[in-house]
Each structure stands twice: as C-alpha cells, then as structure tokens.
Amino acid sequence: MSATMVSQHIPDLDLITSYAERNDSFFSKVSPWTKLGGLVLVILLITLTRSLAICSGLYIAILAVYYLAGLPIKKLFAWCALPVLFVLSLVGLLAWSEPGTPIVSFAVAGVTIALTDNGVLLVFTLLLKALVSVTYSLFFLMTTKYEHFAGMIFRIFPSPLDQIFLMAYRFLFLTLAMTGSMLKAVRSRGGGLVRSIRMQGRIFAEVFALVFIRSFERAERVHTAMIARGYHGSYAAGTAIPRPGFVGYGVLGAFSLIIAIVVWMVPNTRGW
Amino acid sequence: MTVIRRDPHAPHCPPIDRERELIHVDCASHTYPDGSVGIHGMCFSVLKNEIVALCGPNGSGKSTLIEHLNGILTPSEGEIWVNGRSITGGEQSDLWKEVGVVFQRSDDQLFAPTVLDDVMFGPLNMGMPVDEAKVAAMRALEAVGAADLVHKLPNYLSGGQKRLVSIAGILAMKPKVIALDEPTSDLDPVHSERIETLITGLRERFSISVVIATHDLDFAARVADRICLVKNGSVFAEGTPAEVFYDPALIADAGLKVPQVVRVYLEYCALHGIEPHDHPIRLEELLFVLRKNPKG
Amino acid sequence: MTVIRRDPHAPHCPPIDRERELIHVDCASHTYPDGSVGIHGMCFSVLKNEIVALCGPNGSGKSTLIEHLNGILTPSEGEIWVNGRSITGGEQSDLWKEVGVVFQRSDDQLFAPTVLDDVMFGPLNMGMPVDEAKVAAMRALEAVGAADLVHKLPNYLSGGQKRLVSIAGILAMKPKVIALDEPTSDLDPVHSERIETLITGLRERFSISVVIATHDLDFAARVADRICLVKNGSVFAEGTPAEVFYDPALIADAGLKVPQVVRVYLEYCALHGIEPHDHPIRLEELLFVLRKNPKG
Amino acid sequence: MAHIHLEDGSFSIFWVIVWWAAAVILVGISLYLLRSGEKTDSRKITIAAFCTAAAFAIFQIEIPVAGGVHLTITPLVGILTGPAAGCLVVFVVNIMAAAVGHGGWSMIGANTLVNISEVLVAFCLFSVLGKITKSPFARAAAATFGALVCGTIVMVGIIIISGVQGVTQSSATILAGLSLVVAINLAVAALEAIITGFVVTFLQKVRPDILGGKQGNSGR
Ligand SMILES: Nc1ncnc2c1ncn2[C@@H]1O[C@H](COP(=O)(O)OP(=O)(O)OP(=O)(O)O)[C@@H](O)[C@H]1O
Ligand SMILES: Nc1ncnc2c1ncn2[C@@H]1O[C@H](COP(=O)(O)OP(=O)(O)OP(=O)(O)O)[C@@H](O)[C@H]1O
Ligand SMILES: [Mg+2]
Ligand SMILES: [Mg+2]
Q1: Of D120, D97, D94, which Cα lies nearest the Cα of D20?
Q2: Is the CB of residue B12 less than 8 Å away from at least one CB of chain C?
Q3: Chain B residue closest to D207 (CA)?
Q4: Is the distance from CB of B247 to CB of B3 less than 8 angstroms?
Q5: Is the ipTM of this complex over 0.85?
Q6: What digits encode the pLDDT tens for the residues C76-107?
Q7: Whether residues C183 and C87 fall in one domain
C-alpha cells in the first residue's frame, strides 16, 4: 500500500475525484440534482424508519446501484470501516443496558449488565443505517463531476459561504498531500509516528504545528498563484448543470411515495 | 554594448525608459516576514521583445525577483512599473493578463481537479467562453508536448509532467511577458529542447518578452539575448551571453561556472594558439567554428 | 561488457546474485491507486560500491523505482531484495537504515522546525545521543555546503537550499546505499559540482553505493559507473557511460539526447577524419583527447 | 474531539430538524455579520478556507490511542478566524465530513452546534486571557482546553436531550454509558491543547500577521 495515503480507511479524495472525472456509467449522466434529491430522500427514510427489514432492503438496493456504476467495492468496504467503528463504539456501549430478553449477561461490581435481543437489534439497525448513508454518499461523490459539484455549491450556498466551501475543497487536496508527504518523510527516515511520540513527544507537537503552518503557506501561495491567473475572489461557476429529466422526477416522485407508504402505512416503523 | 556592472552598495537605477521597457524594477528591498532579505538594491528591466535570463547561485534572489514581476510579492521598499504604470500600491487588478509567472515549484501552481481544468483556469478568468478556453488549453498542452496528460489529475503526475502542465497553464493565457522560474529543471532533454524552441518561437511569432531564472548556463546561453547575473539579492552585471560568458572572472565572481561550450572553445584556442575572438555560445556555433579552423 | 538490452515485453530478470548485489529489484509492476502504471517489468540491481544512474524521459518511472528501494512503495507484483533479504511482505522495519532516499521534491522531505532538527532527525532515530547527532548533522551540512543555513526554517529557504538540506538529512544517517532523485535539478553549478565530488567521494571513502535518477546526462556521464536507460516503466538497456552514450541510436530510442561532450567529440572526429574510438565522457577527457590529436 | 460519533438515523426526525434549524440560524447570523462588515477581502476567505481544509484533513488522521481518536482543530479555527467566519468553517467541515461518511448528514446540525460552541469559547477565552498572560502558549492551550470541555458538555447534552432512536433507557443510564466517551474526550482535549499551544506559539514567531498582529509584508 502506498504510504502517501493518510490511512487506508479514509476515503482517498484523490481517488474519489479521479473516479468521478472518469466515470461514464449511466449514473454519471443522471442529473446531479436528481442524485441530490435521492440523497435527501434516503436520509429521510432512514431517519423515519426503525425497521431492520426496510434498512436491509435499502442497503442492498444502494449497494447494487454502486456496483452497477462500476465503482470499487473492495475500497468501499475499507472506507466503511470507520463509520462502523463509530456506531459500535457508541451504540455498542448503550446496547448493553437496553431492556429486553437477555442474551448474554455479566455481573460487574454487583451490577448486572445484559446484552438483550433489543440491544442487538438496535446495533444492527443503526449499523445498516450508517452503511446506507455512507454508501450512497460515496456513490454520489464518485459519479458526479467536480464542476457539477462546484456549480451546485455555488447555487445552494450564499456568499461567502460558497467561496469558503469551494476554496476549501481545493486546499483540501494540498493539505492532504502535505500530510501524506510528511508521513512519508518521517517513515523513510525511521520515525514511525507512534514511536516518535514516545521518543520525542515535543517534536511531534512541533512538527504538527509546522505542518499546519506549512500547509497554510502553501494554500496562501496557491491562492496568489490563482490570483496571478485572474482569480477575483469569486468563483463563477459557469458550467451548466444538467437538469433532472422526466425519468429523474418520476423516480424521485415514486421514491417519495414509497417513503410515505412505508412510514405511514406499516405500523411500528415510525420513529417519532 | 559591453558588460554593465552595478555596485549593489551604491545602487542607483537608471530612470525608467517608457519607450523600450515593458517592466522596470527599482526595488530597494524585499524582506520576508521572518526577516530574511530576499532582494536588496535590485535594478532590473525587461525590454520589449527580448529574452532575458537571470543567472545566479542558490539563494541569490532570482525567485523573489520573478515573483515581483506580476505583483505576487511587492517590494518592501521601492517601485515596479509594468507598461509604464507603477504597480505598487495602486491598481494592479489586471496585471495577471500582462505578466504570466511559472513558479519554481509546480505544485504551487496546480490545483484544479484535472489537468484540463487547470490549464483552462486562466483563459476562463480572462472571460473566454468554455469551448474556446478548451481549445486554447489543448493547444498549449500540445505546444509543451503534454497533450496525453489532459485527463489526469495534477496530483498524480511525475515531477517533469507537472512542470509541463504548469507551463501550459501560463501559455494558454497568452500574456505579454512570461516569466519562467527554472523552467527546465525537471525536464528531460527532449522536453527541455521543446521548451527552448517554444520560448524562442514565442518571441519571434508573438513578440512576447520572456524572463527566465535558471542555473543551467548552457540553456541560458542558447536562448537568452541578455544575461543578468544576480548575487546577494541584486543584479550586479549584465550583458549579452557572449560578453558575459567569455568573462571568466565575472562568472567566478558570480559564483557560477563557465558553460561547457565556452570551456571547450577556450581550450581549443589555447591549444592551437588561436585568438579566441569568435565567442561561440551554442553547440552549433562551436561546431561551426571548429569546422572553420580545422587545423588551427 | 557491452550494452545489455532487455525486452520489456518478455522480461525475465536474471536471478539474484547475493555476492555482488546490494539491491535486486524484480518488480513485475507497480500500479498507483488511480490505475496509472508506475513501473512494469522492471529488473534493476545495485552492485556493491558502484554509482549507477537511471536516465529516462519524463514519466518513465524513475521516481517510482527509487521509492521502491527503501520500501516507501512496494511492488503490486514482484519482489525486492536488499542485502539478500526480501523486503516485500516481510520485515522491513530497519530498511531505512540501509537505504537512504532523497526525494525529487525536497518539500516532501523537510518537515522539522529548523534545518538542524531536520538533519538530526535520522541520526536520532538511529539511536544516536543528541550531541553526537548534532555533530553528525553539522558535518553533513558542511559536506553539502549549507552550514550557514543551520538555524533557518526549512520552509523559508530557496529551492536550491532546500535540496542541499534534504541531501544532508540523508548523508547524516550514513546509509549503505543512497538513492538521489534528481539531486542537482535545483542547484547552481558550484553546488552541483560539490554534490558531484561528494558522491564520488562517498563511494571511494565509505564504499557506499549510490543510485541517481537524473535527466542531466552530462552529470550522469561524469559520475556514474553504469547507466540504466529507463523507458515506459522498465530498464531497457544498461552499460557503462562510454558504451551507452556512444550509441546514438540507443539514446534516441530512450527518448534522450546525446550529451554535449560526446557530440563535440563525434563532430571533431568527423571533421578530421579520425576514428572515434577514444570515447571521452567528461569534459577533461575531451580536452585531453583534443590535446592528443591537435592536428587531427 | 467533541464530535458526535453517530451516523444517520440515530436521531429522530424531530430532533434532526431542531438541531439543523438551530445551526442554520447561527450560520445565518454569522453570514449577516460578515456581510454587513467591511468588504470581505479575499485573504480572509483564504484563511477561512484553509482552516476548513486543515480541520477536515486533521480530522482524518487517527492517533492510535484507545481504538483511534482524532483531533479537531475547531478551537484553533476560533482563534484564527474569529467567531463569525469560524461558524461558517465548522459548518462546511461538517458537510464535508458527512460526505465521506464521517458523521452523517442528519447529524450536521447537532455537530455544527457542538463545534460552534467550541469556536466561540476558544475565541473568547483566547481574547480574555490575552489581558492576563503574554505567553501565547498558555493562552492558546487554556483556551483550547476550555473550549473542548465545553464542546463535550454540549455534545453529551444534545445526545441526552434527543436520545437515540430505539434506545429506550433513561437519561441517567445513557449518561453512564457515555462516561467512557467523555473521559477519552478529556484526555484528547489535553493533547490538543498542547498542540494548539505549539501552533499558536509558532505562528506568533513566524507569521504574526495571521494572528492579527502587524501585517506581514509578503505581498497581499
Ligand atoms: N518564503 C521565504 N521566507 C523567508 N525567506 C525566504 C523565503 N523564500 C526565500 N527566502 C530567502 O530569500 C533569499 C532569496 O531566495 P530566492 O528563493 O529568491 O533565491 P533563488 O535565487 O531563487 O535561489 P534558488 O536558485 O536556490 O531557487 C534566500 O536567502 C532565501 O533563504
Ligand atoms: N502518485 C501518483 N499517482 C498516480 N500516478 C502516478 C503518481 N506518481 C507518478 N505517477 C505516474 O507514474 C508514471 C511514472 O512516474 P514517475 O514519477 O516514476 O516518473 P519519473 O521517471 O520520475 O518522471 P520525471 O522525470 O518527470 O520525474 C507517470 O506516468 C506518472 O504519471
Ligand atoms: Mg529560486
Ligand atoms: Mg521523477
């Protein structure tokens, strides 16, 4: 594995961008607005429902879409590790004291804590919800061209929020590259980051500080270089974003209908 | 014209000559925020339709000077005129259209998601419609020999490929003056030569002026009309390549080395007892001279 | 020994020779995460006590190979042996002590708060006490001619000064093999020559092996014992400088240009009708040959 | 590292809307303040944008302690950009984090509130402490620690108030379950305080202009 990557479990933005720019599947031609609408509806559905079955179905559907778009499945699972860890670390703690039929139980210092069927169900449901949202987000990122994102950001957010957002997106690549190259340099001269903390704790903080300042100055230089090519402090997103077609509206409409039916008709799924 | 020497301790720039000078730098000093003195007592000018090379040792202030030319840095003390207008303090909003700068580190310059976007950035900012900008970008990429990189991500290029793309990004804007900081330092000989012909071609076809900061004296000797020797933050001597490079004491004074061609020629003359008055500068000239004096 | 040519389409590396080889690379491929092929069918080895130069056009895979040498990158397919031990997959934890790499972009390498800290970083990691590490660092900085920068911040140096410091950072660790990626690309001729004598000196005094990736064929010709020509991600020919550079068809095939000295010599021979069998490679050799045949 | 490590679907729709609305109102106020002030110069935007990028990047480096925690540099953002721009920065950071599965879209509101509290506290403490001590290290470290403690309180508060969908236990039990998280957060806060201290000391030394000191002369 390349050492330039900050961590294997963090979505590699360079890679995501490169997929986005190259993807020529059907989904890359779908209007970004349709995909954005889809995102809102997906999040709405998993916020409203508590049903394990619905979450599983949704997850399988999204995974299929992700696969059909020709995106890397193995990478997806690596990238999902962190969100999964989050859910487990927090909900995993809460699940233990959930009322229900105990499956395992311990007595610690006179208090009995038990993992119940409801607790396990809770963990699984929340886990699936997390996977649904992460997978859809990555699908969205990897099938939408940068210029379309830029255009959407430009239209959605008021100034100067849009400017901060757009410029930050640019600087992000610099900062990540800088962080990666620092790790590479440290490693190639024998300092694993962990050992360095023990060996030279102070230096670590200083290095960290320096990386921060260096990336800042890099960003500043890039900014001046942009000005040197005519950047005025306002990015004019000239690119036209494809509007949703009939099919797009149709799909979104149908999806909304399904959500309404699922949430209002099927009992015990509502999360109010 | 002979070599002009300047005393950096008592600098007095000649006054600006609006007829011939495109850029006139009279920069008493530029001090970086940490207190390092980048340049000091610097007089420098770029004439119309010329290629001028800045040569000097590491840390002599070449990059600092280059970054002054389109207002990325501004003098701590002193003034700079572009096209007869002072750019210090006042309005400099469209300076970027006139002077294009290629940075020493190409990473500073590349930021867009794809190579094409990056090269199109300048033309788009100049108000070109997208299609035209695309054409301009493609043409610039072809000119530097990097057309095959068009859909790559700038982050994922080799050192030399980044250099080519960053040069293309400036070319696409067709500025009146192009300043290149170590343009050939990462390039292989073939691409280097390509950039070389490109630079001389630009001057001939579009009467663009070019400023080059470089250590590669052989390269400077081949392309430049005028050489400015930089030391300790100021230009201390200037002249044509033949004058400057055939003055070994001057070159040594600058902390540089005489180019290979000159060394071979001088040795050859010494060997055959010829008066070295031909002053060949390019390899072709040297070979021509050798041919002319086959037997000494 | 004559030029060895390899067919990149049917690569079969010779087996590893544990007696003479310090590093043996048999890398079927390295593919970057985005799918770009960095190297492909690469056979390369570093012998004991030699200076080997990798020459090839931009994007041919030189840096990718260099970063394999101390395990910063690992082959997607294939294996690498250092000192007879395979480093792929297995233990590679102290590889950095044996192979030091100077990166193409010195910015990638400098991270400590001051130049001294940066150069001391390697020695400290090797377990040297602080005082000793300081002495080692100062000595390395003096060797490259950058002792005056010791208290500066690496971030605030000129391009060439950064290069010098990053070379010093590796020197201070005294590895058995030093790999330098474009070591002279930002350096002025004086510092360049200093690095040149340093490299040859290292080999002579400490029997260190040195790997250099460079485009500067004149430089490669001067220092290297062996030239490996790289194209499209693999070494396709190798030999001594005299063999390689006096084979213009091979050089053209590699996408490079014949060095100046060779061109002058060949022209000179053609001019005087001499058989070109001397094959001078350095400027001094050329001048010597010219002296030997003053009248052709 | 006060940041709610919950993903989409954890809060009920009611609380999602409540926290989002609160965050949007605060961001709106910041926007109003920024736009009504003098013309926003592009340098300020550069700093804010850079802080956004750095916050996001640093977010992504795990420190191998206790199963992997990470720093947020929200207090530093507060110190460098001030409260108004700081609110925008943390809002954008949270959107970006959600996009790569680091937090969840419906959690952006809650997380932004947590971070805004950090930005505000850090900024205020840093300014106030400036009258007490000259040492930039002490100022920055104390401000950071205070901010992160406050952020942790806000985070726990939000979780207790909104509850987690499907969790039916009492607030007290949830609080007990969260105590481990709080303990880790405080340990990381101490580490982050030290690092922020160094960053600010360094900035004071080499780039005082960023800290609002005298303007450097490196051009724009
Ligand atoms: N960002 C910076 N901050 C502080 N000092 C700097 C900075 N950049 C350069 N300097 C200092 O200013 C002086 C001139 O640097 P400059 O980069 O102009 O040299 P240069 O001639 O381009 O050198 P090189 O050939 O090595 O690139 C050097 O002494 C250097 O240390
Ligand atoms: N980080 C990266 N990600 C993806 N592809 C890369 C990366 N770095 C290099 N490449 C690609 O791998 C190939 C080999 O690159 P490499 O940097 O090894 O070339 P090089 O011989 O060092 O060139 P140069 O002389 O220009 O430095 C090139 O085609 C390049 O585009
Ligand atoms: Mg320079
Ligand atoms: Mg390279």
Answers
A1: D94
A2: no
A3: B33
A4: yes
A5: no
A6: 888 888 888 888 765 556 788 889 999 888 88
A7: yes
The answer, for B29 touching chain D at a CB cutoff of 8 Å, is: no
β partners of residue C54: C213, C228
The mean pLDDT value for A168-197 works out to 70
Gap from A219 CA to chain B (nearest CA, Å): 8
Phi, psi for residue C53 in degrees, rounded to 5: -110, 135
User: Does B33 touch chain D if contact means CB atoms closer than 8 Å?
Assistant: yes
Best to test chain A binding among B94, B111, B150 (most A CBs inside 10 Å): B111
Same domain, C132 and C206: no
Chains that touch C (3 or more CB pairs under 8 A): A, B, D
In this prediction, residue B137 carries a pLDDT of 92
Burial of A71 (0-12, 13-18, 19+ CB in 10 A): buried
Domain boundary among B174, B207, B229: B174
Structure tokens at C280: 């001078």
Atom of ligand 2 nearest to the CA of B188: 25
More confident call, A207 vs C258: C258
B267 inside domain: no
Using a 6 Å cutoff on CB, does residue C107 contact ligand 1?
A: no
The domain tally of chain B equals 2
Binary contact (B33, D207; C-beta < 8 A): yes
For the ranges B33-42, B202-211, C44-53, D3-12, the lowest mean pLDDT is seen at D3-12
CA of B36 to the centre of ligand 3 (A): 14
Q: Is C112 on the interface with D (CB under 8 A)?
A: no
| Dihedral sign computed on CA atoms, order A259, A261, A264, A268 | negative
* Bridge partner residues of C177 (DSSP): C99, C209
HSE, CB side, 13 Å, CA atoms: give it for residue D63.
23
Q: In the structure encoding, which two tokens stand for residue D64, read together?
A: 């191998």
A158's tokens: 């008021």
Residue bearing tokens 């207008």 = B85
- Indicate whether C47 belongs to any domain: yes
Structure confidence by residue, pLDDT tens digits, D177-204 = 777 778 878 888 888 888 888 888 878 8
In a domain, C274, yes or no: no
A201 near A230, Cβ under 8 Å? no
Entry field: residues in chain B = 296
B34 touches chain D (CB under 8 A): yes
Distance of alpha carbon C107 from its chain centroid, rounded? 19
Cβ-contact C266, C280 below 8 angstroms = no
**C126 contacts C97 by C-beta, under 8 angstroms:** yes
Contacts of A213 in chain D (CB under 8 A): 199, 202-203, 206-207
Contact D219 B34 (CB under 8 A): no
- Protein residue closest via CA to atom 13 of ligand 2: C38
Ligand 2 centroid distance, CA of A144 (Å): 26
Same domain, B20 and B81: yes
**Closest ligand 1 atom to Cα of B60:** 21
User: C interface mutation test: which of B158, B271, B274 has the most C CBs within 10 A?
Assistant: B158
pLDDT(C179) > 60: yes
Domain of residue B90, residue span: 13-98+175-241
- Reduced to 3 states (helix: H, G, I; strand: E, B; else coil), residue B56 is coil
pLDDT one-digit tens code per residue, C57-71: 999 999 999 989 888
Same domain, C111 and C80: no
